[in-house]
Amino acid sequence: MAEGKPNSKPALQKPPGYRDPQAPPPTVPKPPPRRRPLPPSFRLPGKALPRRHRSRRSFCCRFCCWASAVVLALAALIAVAAGLTYLWFQPRFPSFRLELLNATRLRVTSRPDGTFLDAATAVGILISNPNGKIILDYGDGEARVRVVDDDGDVDVGVAKVAGFEQARRNRTVVRFWTAAKSVAVDEIAGGRIQAGFRSKEVKLGLSLRTRVGLRVGDASTGKVPIRVGCGPVSLKQGVSHGTLPSCRFYLFRWINLH
Fold first, then answer.
1. Of 32, 107, 185, 237, which one is least surrounded by beta carbons within 10 A?
2. Is 223:137 a contact under the CB 8 Å cutoff?
């Protein structure tokens, strides 16, 4: 006799997270009631109400905005003041021109140990202040005279130039003398220098380094370094009492202004 098969089916497993649609909705717990601050009469004396802390980022942004506005306002005021000052005083740079450049002695001597040069020069520089409201204040300076040669310049003397004040719309001639002894030179260059001295064709150059400042009334500015370069000028041209060429003027010793 054959055995009968069971008719019952196995129960299906419910998937994870299954929710019976006929089941009542779950109850959500209510948040606790918010605690209200006590009135002033119930607070302890000396205890302040809690304050909200301001954002540090917003404070930094406001501070940067105010600082930028102040800096821009100051820059605008300075620019306006500088423009008005320039229009009122109309400052102009001084001019420099050679008045005299003469070599009173250029002697070349040949010795067993080499060729040497002895020199003495006289220099005059015409300095003009074109400003009608500004006084120029020059500091102590140093001047160098050189012989210009194809094989290289030869220094023939250094002189100290004393500082001075130059009045408005004034022209001043600054004079000084230089001397050099036993300056070693090449034998061929020494021969050219000696021949050029006899024919007055030898060329001389000048370099002046000093400092200059501005003064208006009791107010004055600091002095800035300048460099003046003159030449090359032939000896014949330097003592002709004619119009010598203007000198080059360098502000801060390297900005060419003339």
1. 32
2. yes
Report the SS3 class of residue 171. Answer: strand
Q: What is the mean pLDDT of each run of 10 residues along the chain (258 residues)?
A: 54 66 71 68 57 66 87 90 77 90 91 92 94 94 93 91 95 94 91 91 93 90 93 82 79 73
Provide φ and ψ at 257, rounded to 5°: -110, -15
Q: Which two tokens stand for residue 192?
A: 């050219």
The single-letter code of the amino acid at 79 is A
User: Which helix (H) or strand (E) is 32 found in, with range?
Assistant: none
Q: Where are the alpha helices (DSSP H) in the chain?
A: 56-89, 187-199, 235-238
Output b/e per residue, 213-225; b: 16+ Cβ within 10 A.
ebebeeeeeeeee
Exposure string over 35-61, b if 16+ CB within 10 A, otherwise e: eeeeeeeeeeeeeeeeeeeeeeeeeee
CA distances from 77 to 70, 73, 81, 83, 159 (A): 11, 6, 6, 10, 45
What are the C-alpha distances in Å from 161 to residues 15, 214, 227, 252? 106, 19, 13, 18
